[in-house]
Design brief:
Strand content: 15-25%
Shape: extended
Number of strands: 7
CATH topology of the largest domain: Nucleotidyltransferase, domain 5
CATH architecture of the largest domain: 2-Layer Sandwich
Structural class: alpha+beta
Number of helices: 4
Distance between the termini: 98 Å
Order of helices and strands: HHEEHEHEEEE
Helix content: 40-55%
CATH superfamily of the largest domain: ATPase, nucleotide binding domain
Number of domains: 2
Largest sheet: 4 strands, mixed
Length: 207
Amino acid sequence: MRKAAALAAVAAVAAAAAIAVRQRLREARRWARVAAVLSDLQERCVAPAARLLQVSDAMDVEMRAGLASEDGSKLKMLVTYVDSLPSGDEKGLFYALDLGGTNFRVLRVQLGGKEQRVIKQESVGVSIPQHLMSRSSHELFDFIAAALAKFVASEGEDYHLPEGTQRELGFTFSFPVKQTSISSGTLIKWTKGFAIEEMSGWQGYRG
């Protein structure tokens, strides 16, 4: 009886092992087919360097044409008046506000120049209530200003404002604006769910 039971147990284990091996072989064959399909797709999608350069040159031509005149290109282009980039020597405490959809983000960063670069940074995202996206500009920007003030008030002691300087704020307004200078422009239209009619054609200025 014991021998029979032992033989039965061995047979069961052997059968289970055989099933597991067959399953692994099937999975291996399946993954091999998947790998072959992906490899074929990769080969078909690879773009030669010469073709990429052609695309790049064509985009450059279209962008320049779009900047030259409103109807000069299929690409809609707007002049930004940004004529310089950060040098890396910037030091101090800086804030940034990015308004570009149903959320806006406020960021705080301590810069230490080329040697220390970004010493510390923090950011917070704030959801804009749906009703503020279609009411008045005063309500919208009062809400944004209150959130910014709250974030500035949370500034810790490990952030340092150099003596004789003020906090600086960069504002990203991610909507179609026809700029007339680096600090002024006219809102062309709202997008991304915003519909504050009084701001159509609104002119914004930074003093």
